[in-house]
C-alpha cells in the first residue's frame, strides 16, 4: 500500500499545480459575487469592500432591513386606516344592537299580551263581523 502511495505522489508531483485563486478574480457561481454586483450597482458597497464576503453579507442584510422598514412605513398607515374603519363599523353594530333591543322591549310585551288573550281577541273580531 505504501508503494502505491509513493507512486501516486510521484505522479502528482509531475503534474502542474492548479492556479491559485486571485482575490481580485470573482469565483464562478458564488452567491456573494451576485450580491456584491447588486450592492455595488445600488451604492451600498465599493469595489474594494465587495471582495470581502463578510462585508457583502453585512451590506446585503442591512439593505434587506432597510427595505423591510420602508415597507412597514408604507404599510402601517394603510393598516391603521383599515382598523379605524373597522372600529367605526363596530360602533354602527352597537347602534343596530340598541335599535334591536328597543324593538324587542316594545314588541315582546305586545306579543305576550296577544298570546295570553288570543282566544278573546279572535272571538271579538268574529263577533263584530269583520272579515
Describe the protein in words:
- The protein is mainly α and 131 residues long.
- It has helices at 2-14, 31-41, 53-116, 118-128.
- The longest helix is centred in the middle third of the chain and has 64 residues, at 53-116.
- 6% of the residues are buried.
What keyword list fits this structure?
elongated, mainly alpha, 131 residues, 0% strand, single chain
Mind sketching the topology for me?
Layout: H1 2-14, H2 31-41, H3 53-116, H4 118-128
Helix pairs in contact: 2-3
Quick recap of the structure?
This protein is mainly alpha-helical. The chain has 4 helices and no strands. The longest helix has 64 residues, at 53-116.
Give the biggest beta sheet: none
**What is the share of helical residues?**
over 70%
Percent of residues in β-strands: under 5%
Number-wise, the strands total 0
Helix-strand topology string: HHHH
Amino acid at each position: 500500500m505504501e508503494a502505491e502511495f509513493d507512486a501516486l505522489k510521484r505522479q502528482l508531483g509531475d503534474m502542474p499545480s492548479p492556479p491559485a485563486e486571485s482575490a481580485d478574480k470573482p469565483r464562478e457561481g458564488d452567491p456573494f459575487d451576485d450580491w456584491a454586483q447588486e450592492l455595488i450597482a445600488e451604492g451600498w458597497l465599493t469595489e474594494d469592500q465587495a471582495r470581502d464576503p463578510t462585508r457583502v453579507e453585512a451590506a446585503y442584510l442591512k439593505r434587506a432591513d432597510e427595505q423591510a422598514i420602508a415597507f412597514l412605513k408604507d404599510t402601517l398607515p394603510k393598516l391603521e386606516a383599515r382598523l379605524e374603519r373597522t372600529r367605526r363599523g363596530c360602533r354602527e353594530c352597537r347602534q343596530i344592537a340598541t335599535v334591536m333591543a328597543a324593538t324587542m322591549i316594545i314588541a315582546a310585551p305586545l306579543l305576550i299580551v296577544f298570546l295570553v288573550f288570543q282566544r278573546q281577541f279572535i272571538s271579538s273580531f268574529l263577533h263584530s263581523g269583520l272579515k
